[in-house]
Specification:
Structural class: alpha+beta
Radius of gyration: 14 Å
CATH architecture: 3-Layer(aba) Sandwich
Largest sheet: 5 strands, mixed
CATH topology: Trna Endonuclease, Chain: A, domain 1
Number of strands: 5
Low-confidence stretches: none
Mean pLDDT: 93
Distance between the termini: 31 Å
């Protein structure tokens, strides 16, 4: 599986995972300028912006560690545009779904409110 194929697979897997947890998937791959939000969902009257990171191994670190402060700022800008454009009046939360997938296992970590807790 190429890196791009793994990324697409991971986003699909994350959607299935979130739906099983009770999330409604509102939009996928929402783009604004050069940046993108992987998944926009709703859960418990909150708009949830989800960044998905998928790797084949955690050898260089857990996938969620790739969501740097700079990446968070980009996602927040896109989310702000989405909320304003669609006149959404809901609390907004930023989550990360971190996936390790290879021939031996698929491990998923869902970090709710990730931008509040990550450094």
């Amino acid at each position: 599986m190429t890196k791009d194929e793994l990324g697409i697979w991971g986003e699909e897997y994350a959607c299935i995972f979130l739906k099983r947890k009770g999330f409604d998937i509102v939009e996928r791959n929402f783009r604004f300028k050069k940046n993108e939000i992987d998944i926009i969902g709703s859960y418990n009257n909150e708009l949830v912006i989800v960044e998905v990171k998928t790797r084949q191994t955690a050898e260089i670190g857990e996938p969620w560690r790739a969501v740097t402060k700079s990446k968070q700022k980009q996602i927040i800008k896109v989310a702000d545009h989405y909320v304003q454009t669609n006149q959404i009046d809901m609390d907004v939360r930023f989550d990360i779904v971190s996936i390790i997938h290879n021939t031996y296992r698929t491990q998923v970590e869902h970090i709710e409110g990730a931008f509040d807790t990550l450094t």
